[in-house]
Each structure stands twice: as structure tokens, then as C-alpha cells.
Write a structure and sequence with these properties.
heterodimer; A: alpha/beta; three-stranded antiparallel beta sheet; 16 helices; B: two-stranded antiparallel sheet; flat
Amino acid sequence: MERWKIAGVVFVGLLVFAISSVWAQQEVKLTFWTFVEKHADYMQLAVEEFNKANPDIKLVLEASTYPYEEMHDKLLMALASGVGAPDLADIEISKFGLFLRGDIQLHDLTDMVDEYRDKLVQERLSPYNYQGRQYGIDYHLGALVMYYNLELFQNAGINVDDITTWDAYVEAGKKITQPDKDIWMTVVETSDLWTIHPLMEQRGGGAYNAKGEMILDCQENIEALQFMQDLVHKYGIARVAPGSYVHDPSFYAFANEGRVASLWMPQWYMIRFTEFMPDLFGKVAIRPMPRVTPEGRRSGMGGGTGTAITKQIDPGKLDVAKRFLGLAKLTYEANKRIWTDLGFDPIRKDVYDDPELMKPLPYFNNEPVLAVIKDLFEHGDIKPEYLGPHYPEIREILRETVCYRVIEEKADPATVLKEAAEEIRALEKE
Amino acid sequence: MAKSRRFARKIVPFVFLSPFLIMFVLFRVWPIVSAFHLSFQELKGIGTSRFVGISNYTTLLSDRRFVSSFLTTSYYTAATLLTLIPIPLVLSVLLFQRHLPGRNLFRTLIFLPSLTSLVVVGTVFRLILADTGGLVNTILGLFGVSPLRWLLVPSLAVPSLTMLALWRWTGMNIVYFSSGLTTIPSEVYEAARLDGAEGFSLFRYITVPMIKPIIVFVITISIIGGYQVFVEPYILYPGGRTPGEAGLTVAVYLYRTAFRNFNMGYAAAIGVVLAGIIFVVSLVQFQVSGFFRR
């Protein structure tokens, strides 16, 4: 009888403990919009981590994935109209500027970033920094690198490690290119900006400078555009990418056949190789871009997606949202997962020493790819990219007009860029 | 008592209609009114709207992109009218022949494109029209035609878009024409045959005049659809960006202005002008086709 009494007391005690711990656990629901399914999956894993680290909070993330344009349009409308926006949202770099016009409807994340600032690659904070305040945090560094198809170089008797300058690159290209066999050193885009953007950034050009001035028609950009034109029309070592851009299915098929010897793209393009170009397994090597001058930079940044917290969040949830975002994007473990789960180059410097990140990759010539990127940021080779109010329009004009005219119409790069810059200046005056 | 019953009788239809009327005003009339209102504003950032009078409209007149997009859209509309009326009309007459073997199979196959996911259509058409290894160029090659750069040169932008539209809308227009063909009494054909008409004469003098109202209807919706074209360039080209802006249509320009450049007031003005253009062109077409005379 006595035993039963003890058991009963223990049972009631456990029940009270269980009920009280559930009551003490505060449930916080956050909504999140993204346009990349993998980002949503990644964030859900981060929720698990957050809940483990914070037993007093039960965080629930309602993630919705929409198509790219639709998500940004919906978000813009929701923020402009004052209703219907999620608590957290992914905003792609080309679109970020739109959300910084007028009354900014995104929360300032500067204090949150300050906690981790010394650990981060500083250059990567610049795109989402506006007037000294931080409004978004990226998933990745997006370092610009060169992808080489080793088979074509070996056939031509060239070692890719010898290509340290663009002059050497052009010389190698002349040996490799065989127009009659439709084999080319590289391809150029006429309806997107991934050929021109890295060339401009590497030279110190781009859309805006550190002072926030629009520099679309600066000398560095003109030289970059001239070089792009020369690759096709002077040196004859490049053709227009099938489908006019390197994200087209017809380009993937073309490259998969081994017709493209090299391509400069951000690190995140790696997953396009593994996913769409299976026949290049083991043949692709990643190296820094060649230098323009002996002291010139070997890289810059390309693309990106900043996660932001909107002002429509319930103020009572803001603190949890910031802590969650910090844990999902800025901690050591999070940055490790950025590589292991998403395959992106992390923005935190110390994580690059982790053995997990230095594992060789069989597809990419069995080399540790991130070693190249570590070398780049350690040597200050990654040029920070600066955004300004008309960054979206600048990207649009580069995509639709500038590259097309210079390549297809053989227009003078300086004239084309001056006209484009005038168009942007007219917008600035309005 | 009788008075109140009469009043109730008057009010009842409105009560039953009210759900529709409320929805119509809320989701149709109100957006039109507010778009019109927005077209007189400058709205380039969140919470920054200000009244600018007709300035958006005056800017539009000298906007070379708007003018060129209008010309492109007119070209596209004309191209779709020249293909999407005669081809489905002839096909619907052929499919209407009772003795045609596999009639239902052909009908289903021709209608299927209207039901296909747009993302899939865009990807498949980019592969079909690819300059290297594309299906169209491969077929042209069999006839000794050298490969065309369908998606890369401005001059082929509208033809490429028309091809896509033809593939997508032929089935739908066949449905319209078929519904018209079913209304023609067989006696009319029999009488004509007795008078010696056959083959093309039957088509020219009986079928076409008898389904003229349907033809006018299809022309009208094709004009409206042609001037509003957005989906075709948007799925066929990356983000609707065509080589040298040769496929920039008014609706794509409107979208770009609103959502890529966040210039809502100006985009609203483009929308209002586009609606005006469609209204005028439709009126002209009604006049020419003799629609008002009946």
C-alpha cells in the first residue's frame, strides 16, 4: 500500500512538472517568405537548433516558398500597403534597393550584426548596408571564381595554374578555341550580367562606389566592357552563350558536352555544374580569376540574398526573430551548415579552418574548393560591392541593353555605358 | 401593406444580386478607379506618394521605350491575328468533318497546350528554339536552311513569340469556332450543294458568313489579348528580357516599371493608356467589321 502511495506521489509530481514546463515554454510563431526551397529547408533546421538552445521558447517557423518575381512583388505590395507581410523575408540583391526607397519597412539589424562583426567577412555586409545601418544578412559570400574544364586545357598542354593574368588567359584561349568544332575558351551573356559584372567589380568598378556615387560609366567599367567585346570580336575566343545566358538549359547542355573551357561565375554556380553538367565530373577545377594588373584583385562578389525582418512583425516577437536570425546566419555552426547543407561559401571567416569545409570534392578535381576562397579573402582580393538607390535599374539596363549592344551590335562600350549612365542620372534627378 | 410588398418585390432582386455587385465593385471597379487615381501620383518608394497632375502622361508621350513597346505590341497583335484566326478556323472546319478518323484525338491534342504549365512551356520552347541543337533549327537544316538565332536577334523576337502564341492558343480558338460551326443548320449546306457549291465555295460562301459573329468575337479577344501580352515574352525570355528590347511589350514594360523600378504612378499611367488603346482599336475593329450596323 505504502509503495502505491509513493508511486502515486511521484506520478502526480511528474505530471505537474510536465504541465508546468509546457506552460513555461513560450510558443512563438514566425512567418518567412523565400523564393528558394532549399533556404526554407535550411531555416527549418535552424529552428530545431534554436529550440534546442532555447528550451524556454518553442519557435515555429511558417515558411512559404514562392517563385522569384512573385515573392518580391508580393512583399513589396504588402510592405507598401501596410498589411500582409511576413515577419522574415529573403530579398535578392537585385531587388534589395527597392525596399530601401521611401520609408524603410525593414528592421535595423546593426546591433545584431555588431555581436559577430569581427568574425565576418566585412565586404559581405556592404550590399545590405544603407546609410550606415544593416538591413539584411546574406547566406553566402558569393566570391567570384574561375571554373576551368581541365580536359580541354590538358589537351592543349596548358596548366591552369599558369593563367594568373588576363593576358595569359587570352593567349591560352587562342590555343584552345576551335570555332569549327564549336569549342570556345568561354562564353559571354547578352541577356544577363554574369559576364560583365565580375569584370567590372574586379577592376574596382560596378554600380556604385563606397561613397554611394553612381559610377556606371567609370573608366574601369568601360575597360571591362571593352574586354568583354574583345573576347568575342578581337580575340575570337568567346561566343554568345547558347540561349544568351549561362542559366539556360541549352547552355548547360552545351557546356556538358565539353565545349566551354572556362567560365567566371560566383561560387554558388558550383551547384549548376553538379546538377546540370554530370559529364564534367572530376574535370572541373576552381581557381581565382586572373588579375588585370600584377597587383590587381582576383575576385569580387556576385549575387546574394539578404534575409530581413519586416516592420510588420509583432514588436513582442522582434527579439526572438533577431536571435533566431543570428543563430541561423551568423554563428559558427550555422556557417558550417551553410556549406554542408546549402553548398554556399560562408560569410564567417573562422569557419574556413573547419575540416568539414576543407574536404576535397570529387566533382571538382578532388580539391577543397573553399581553400581557394579562403585564400581570396585572406589576401583582400574580394572587392566589396556597393548598392545604391538605383541599383535595380542599373542591373536591369546591363542585362537588357548594355551587353546586347556591345556584343551583337558591336557598339562602342564607352558610348553605350555613357548613355546608360545618363538614363540612370535622369532617374536620380526626378 | 401592398405598398411595402411592392417595395420588397423591387428590392429582392438587388438583395440577390448584392453578393456579385459587392464583389464587382470591390475587385473590379475600385481597382480601376484607384489605378486611375494612382496615375496622377508619383509613387517611387514606400509612403512617398504625391500628386503630380498629368505629368506621368506627358512623360509617357516622349518615352521612347513606351513608343517602341507600343509598336512591338502592335506588330505582335497583327502577327497573332494573321495566324491565330485563319489557322484555327481551317482546322476547326477540318475537325468538324464527321468522317475524319481520330477526330477526338486530334481535338484533344490541339487543346492540350492551353492546359500546360507555363513554366514548362517556357523551358521547352527555349530548347525548341535554341540556336544550337534546337528542334526548329534541326528541322530547318533538313531543308538546307542554315541555323537561325531565334532567341538571340531582335528581328526574330516577335516571330518567336507568335510561334509560342500559336501553339498555346490554337486549341482555344478552335473551341470558339467549333461552337459557331454547330449552329449552322445542315440544310443550308444541302441547299448550297444543290446549287452546285462544294469544297472551298461552301467554306467561303456558307461557313464564313454564317459564323461571322464568332469570327468578330475571336478577332476582338485576340486584339485585347495581343495588346495585353505579358506571359509569352515573360516565359520565353529570361525575366521577359528580349534581345535589344525587341520583344518589350507594353504590359512587360508596365510590369517592369511597377515592380522592377518601383514607379507605381507611372506604371498606372501606362495601364490607363493601354486600356485606352485597346478600347479604341476594338472600336475601330467593330466599325470595320460592320458590327455596329447590325
